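Lecture notes, continued. The same structure-token format from the folding unit now serves as the input rather than the output. Read the line below as a description of shape only.
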């Protein structure tokens, strides 16, 4: 199993207990046997691996990385995350549920006007 997939499973299992709701999004092209060709993703370039709703009701976007690989964030992923943060979403890059939980706890404790700056400061 790929290291990033291990992080995904950990987050999906633990996050539901803390009232996060996430859906997995694959942005890769997939092969259609019926069409006999690859079908390109309908997601925007750089879309996060997980999207859903955080416990406070805001949209949430989570880019998953293997343990210790946070700095491998691609430029199109950073652009996507920056855009959704600037529109009020909770969006982060994480390599564990512990890190997601820490980021969210701090985010939730901040005043509304401080949240955007905080999240942008976390992007690698």
């Amino acid at each position: 199993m790929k290291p990033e997939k291990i992080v995904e499973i950990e987050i999906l299992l633990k996050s539901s207990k803390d009232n996060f709701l996430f859906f997995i999004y694959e942005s890769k092209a997939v092969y259609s046997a019926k069409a006999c060709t690859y079908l390109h993703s309908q997601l925007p370039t750089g879309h996060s691996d997980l999207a859903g709703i955080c416990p406070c009701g805001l949209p949430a976007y989570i880019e998953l990385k293997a343990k210790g690989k946070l700095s491998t964030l691609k430029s199109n992923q950073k652009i996507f995350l920056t855009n959704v943060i600037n529109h009020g979403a909770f969006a982060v890059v994480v390599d564990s549920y512990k890190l997601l939980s820490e980021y969210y706890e701090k985010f939730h404790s901040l005043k509304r006007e401080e949240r955007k700056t905080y999240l942008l400061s976390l992007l690698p």
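Point for the exam: Helices lie at 3-15, 75-86, 97-109, 112-122.
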